[in-house]
Amino acid sequence: KVVGRITHSLMSTVLINDVDEEKLLRHFCLEAECQAVLTAAKEEGFERPEETDERLADAAKLRTLGNEKFQANDYEGAMMRALWALHYLDFSQAKSCLQTSDQKQNSMDILIRVLSNLSLIFLRRGDAYNSVRAADLGLETLKRLPTTEDTTFQAKLLFRRGVARGDRKEFEAALQDLREAAKLQPSDREIRRAIDNCKERIRLDRGAPDDVWRGHFTDMPVTSAASARCRRCWKRLGSLAVDPQHLPTLMMIFALPILVTLVPRILQFVRQS
């Protein structure tokens, strides 16, 4: 531990900086949970080495194993391996000071990938809160790296944080993240689709409460609210007609009433014949 003292005119404050403290795993886990994660790692034969290069190599291996678990829909196993990888990358301040520049760069590169995976894993597990936290930490780590033209992971982290915020019904913040991701990856259809969904949720959240007040200063409040809903419905149908992707849906909407009317008559005609 490093002890420092700040002198003030009236009093002095002692600051204690624990250079051996590890923070990454505790970003997501309480103390008891940390111990459970580490115990599970040892039971699976993963015990963290002391040498930096070995730790980095093993962390990369754990990330790969976590990806395999994720592909097999074993989100629990994927999460555990991602957390174990975090433990391997959890260098104390004292150890970080002894690393070479290449080791620090490699460590942050692996860390960003692990956090990106972890954000997605938490999403699949329905844990939007920790998904946002993983993306936050990944984006903070990215800021410490030199600026590059490759914005893949920044876009991924923004997208996953946006989706997680949407799950938490924080639609305005989600839309901001998704738009930032779209700027970085303008051709990504999944991001564009998420933006459309987010806009729709914002529109619904804003539009529905207005109906409560529509017509309260007229003689026909129910009619006014129904009329407003009808106008929004036609507006929505118009937006669907513009996008060729939604053309089959639009055709089904208009064809359904016709089918409902014709099918009974056709069946009656068949019986009579």
Automatic annotation (TrEMBL):
TPR repeats lie at residues 155-188. It comes from the Eukaryota. Keywords: Membrane, TPR repeat, Transmembrane, Transmembrane helix. PROSITE patterns: TPR. The chain crosses the membrane at residues 247-267. Gene3D superfamilies: Tetratricopeptide repeat domain. The keyword Transmembrane helix applies. This is Peptidylprolyl isomerase.
